[in-house]
Each structure stands twice: as structure tokens, then as C-alpha cells.
Amino acid sequence: MTPDHLRRGRARRGMAPAAAATLLLVTLGSTAPAAHADPTPARSGSPAPLPTTVEGLKKELDKLQEEAAILTEQYNKTRVDLKAAKKAEQDAARKAAALRAQAEPARKRLGEIAAANYKGGRPDVLFMIDGTAEGLAASAYLAQRQVDTVAALEKQVGQAEAAEKAAQAKTTEVEKAAETSEEARGRAKAKVDEVLKRLEKLTTTNVYSPRTGLKAAVKGTGLPAEMARKAVAKLGAPYVWAAAGPSSFDCSGLVVWAYAQVGKSGLPHYTGSLYGLGTKVSRSELRSGDLVYFGSNLHHMGIYLSDGKYLHAPQTGDVVKISRLSERSDYAGANRIG
Predict the structure, then answer these.
(1) Under the phi-then-psi rule, with left for phi > 0, alpha for psi from -120 to 50, and beta for the rest, what region is 57?
(2) How does pLDDT run across 233-253, given as a tens digit for each residue?
(3) Is residue 80 classed as helix, strand or coil in its secondary structure?
(4) DSSP assignment, residue 207?
(5) How far is C-alpha 154 from the geometric centre of its chain's CA atoms?
(6) Which residues are CB-neighbours of 188 under 8 A, at least 6 positions away?
(7) How many other C-beta atoms are found inside a 10 Å radius of the C-beta of residue 171?
(8) Considering just the CA atoms, what is the radius of gyration of the chain in Å?
């Protein structure tokens, strides 16, 4: 007869696969902890007050526009990074899901073996040939293989789920970076807008056209705006065909003369050639000093001022005056010559 302590030892050895099965079932789905993003740097103190002179505001505007350009590119980078992070997260999620599906049949089979062993209460019958120490039965060997298979699959699943968690954490981190970058870009744009408003206020020239009774303003700085200021000084000057100042003008002659006063001489005295220069501007983006054109053959032109009004030398018998764009049905386009 086999001593009791040998039977107990064999029983313990026979329980090893079932115990392993139970342990694996308890630990299914465990994952590594998610990574944490670096803390957001603290914001700097209160900004310095804006300059109060035109020259000071111009310098401040140049500095702020450079900062805004840098922040815009940083924001563009975070959008590219976020797109890549989301794709990586989706790929990791698909891989983890595929591995979980692959592991499920083996996990289910192992659970059935563990349950049968527990309910039977006689692991030696399931895992031993005949109660002797001769070796494991075929069923025990297969059970052990199931344990090994599930253990290998669970290792892969755990690694995939850890990668999925890391990808999710990375996406969250990049989303926060994109949000922070967008906020910084917004603050920079707000500063630029504020400086532009102050600069515009300090550099607004109000004008009145006696011939039409219209008021307008030349706003801002820069070569086109300074050119427009020179041109409005000629309000009331008579129209003379082919004249380019200084006391009489035709439509393109007024533009050529005004640009010469701000250091840009030699422009062509012809609407078609002027339209080919500079940068095209949409009607919604017109600002002081932009050149506006009329007619399919560009037979007439003027200088935009503000609020839908423009300066021009219209025709024989008329004078340099301010008119409304809305009164023209033949608006053809605009450009900006810097």
C-alpha cells in the first residue's frame, strides 16, 4: 500500500496545472500603469505695458508678429503629432483586441479544466494514471500544455494592453500640448490685434470730400497707407486725361504720383500694368492704400480708403473725390503694392 504522505505529494503535484489555471484566470486582463505627461510649465508674470508712440508700437508689432509666427508653427507641429498619436493608439487598440480574441478560446478551455477539477474533488483521478507515481496521464499532459499556451498568450495580451495604455497616455499628452499651444497662439494673436488697434488709432487720418460730402479715413501704416495719405491731399484737384500731377490727374496718374511721393517712383501709368503688380486682395480684405479696379478691361481705378469708400479721379469735368464701392456694378478686383 502506498504511504499516505506519498499520496498527498502526488495529489499536490497533480493539482499544479489546475492551480496554475486558477491563478491565470484570476490575473486575466492585468495591465501596466499608464504613463504620466510632464507638467505644463508655469506661465510668466504680467505682461509689460504697450508702447504709446507709433514708432514704439511698430517695433512691438514686429516682435509680436515674429512670436506669433513661431507659436503658429509650434501649434502646427502639435496637430501633426496628434494625428500620429491617434493613429498609433488605434493601431495598438486593434492589436490588443486581436490578441484578446486569440487568447479567449484557450482561456475558456483552461477555465473548463479548472472547473472540472474543482467540482470532481479528485485531482489524482484527472491527472494520474491509476493513483501510482508512474507519471502524468495524457489528460494531465494536455492540461499542462493548455496552461503553458494560456500563459504565453496572456503575456502577449499583457504586453499589447500595456502598449495600448501607453498609446492612450501619449495621445492625452499630445492633446494637452496641442491645447496649450492653441491657447498660446490665441494669446499671441490677441496681442497682435491689440497693437494693431492702437497703431490704427494713432495713425488714422480722417478726410472729407466736398464734391460728394462723404467722409472716410486712411488707417494704419505701411507704404500703401502712406501713399493713400499723399493722394487724399489732392482732393478737389481736376481730372485731366493722361495727367500725373502735381495739380491735375487721371485715375492711374493719381496713383503713380502718390507712390512717387513715398519713394516708389517709376510705376507704369496704365491700369492694366498696375493691376499686374503687387499682391491680389479679396474685396473682404481691403484696407487703406489698396488699389481697386473697375470694368472688364480695367478702364478705371481708384485708391481704397476705408468703410467701403475709395478715392479716385473719375472723368473729364470732375475732380479727385471720394465715392462708394457699392455704387459701382463693374468692380473687377484689387491689389496691394508694397
Answers:
(1) alpha
(2) 999 999 999 999 999 999 999
(3) helix
(4) E
(5) 39
(6) 64, 67, 68, 71
(7) 20
(8) 41
Long-range contacts of 141-146, Cβ-Cβ distance < 8 Å, separation of 24 or more: 143/17, 143/18, 143/21, 143/113, 144/16, 144/17, 146/17, 146/21, 146/106, 146/109, 146/110, 146/113
Cα dihedral sign for 174, 175, 180, 183? positive
Q: Measuring CA to CA, which residue among 293, 276, 271 is closest to residue 337?
A: 276
239 and 313 in contact (C-beta within 8 Å)? Answer: yes
The angle, 0 to 180 degrees and rounded to 10, between the axes of the packed helices 4-26 and 138-202 is 20
pTM of the model: 0.52
Interior angle at CA 180, CA 74 and CA 91, nearest 5: 75
How confident is the model over 272-329, as pLDDT tens digits? 999 999 999 999 999 999 999 999 999 999 999 999 999 999 999 999 999 999 999 9
Q: What type of residue sits at position 189?
A: K
Cell of 314: 473719375
Cell of 151: 500563459
Residue ranges of the alpha helices (H) in the chain?
4-26, 54-120, 123-127, 138-202, 223-232, 251-261, 271-275
Backbone angles phi, psi at 94, to 5 degrees: -65, -40
| Cα separations in angstroms, 23 against 106, 313, 327 | 15, 94, 86
